[in-house]
Each structure stands twice: as C-alpha cells, then as structure tokens.
Amino acid sequence: MLKLDNRLKKRKSFNYIYRKGKHIGNEVLTLVFVPARVREVKIGFSVSKKVGNAVTRNKATRKMKSAARELVPLINPNHTLIFVAKEGIDKIHVNDIKMAMENVLTRAKVLR
Q1: What is the DSSP string of 21-55?
Q2: pLDDT at residue 1 is higher than 70
Q3: Angle value at C-alpha 95, between 15 and 55, nearest 5 degrees
Q4: Which of 32, 47, 79, 93 fits 57 for a cystine, CB–CB 3.0-4.6 Å?
Q5: What is the mean pLDDT of the segment spanning 19-34?
C-alpha cells in the first residue's frame, strides 16, 4: 500500500486538482497534476463507475496503489497527482499499469 503521508484524500483537494491541473493520458489511465507548495508527493486515485461494480473498482484501485508505491521515490517532491483509471484497467496486470504510469509521468516531466 501507499504510505499515509503520500495519499490525497480530501474532496476539496481532488476538486482543486481537477480544475487547475494539467491532464496527460494514455490507453490505461490519465494523470492530472499540479505543482505543490509543500515538498512532498501527494497521490490520489480515481476509478469511475464505468470501470465496473464496486469489487472491480476496488481491485483496480489496489493495483494502481501497488504500482504507484514503487514510483513514489522517483517523483519530484513538489507535485500533487491524481491517477484516473480508464475502462479495462481491471484486466491489466500490475506491471503493465506501472509501465503506463511511468510513461505518463515521463511525458509530464514529473520524474526526477
């Protein structure tokens, strides 16, 4: 799991990032990010009802958290991120999700 220090939880934070952030995506997920004032990485995850029922969405969220946990040390510490899952993410292996996250983070120039 992702450390508690790195989780984004508040609805207000999610709304701010969706409004002000930049969007970059691929076939698996979309990254929404904004520069942060605090020198730490905050990551949120969003899985819509288009992905499936509650069990499927929870599995997709767990896979995304597992993939992101390995990438946290590589991310510049002054960013707040939200990973938004797209349809079909529940059928993809965790390693493929991690590669998709790396791809999006590299294109966003958020990696160190």
Answers
A1: -EEEE-SSEEEEEEE-SSSS-EEEEE--TTS-SHH
A2: no
A3: 55
A4: 47
A5: 95
> What is the structure's pLDDT at 34?
94
pTM of the entire structure? 0.92
Tens digit of each residue's pLDDT (9 = 90 or more) over 59-82: 999 999 999 999 999 998 889 999
Cα–Cα distance measured from residue 107 to residue 102, given in angstroms and rounded to the nearest whole number: 9
Q: Cα 24–30–33 angle (5° rounding)?
A: 60
Task: Write out the DSSP string of 60-95.
Answer: HHHHHHHHHHHHGGGB-TTEEEEEEE-TTGGGS-HH
- Dig out the tokens for 27 from the structure: 């076939």
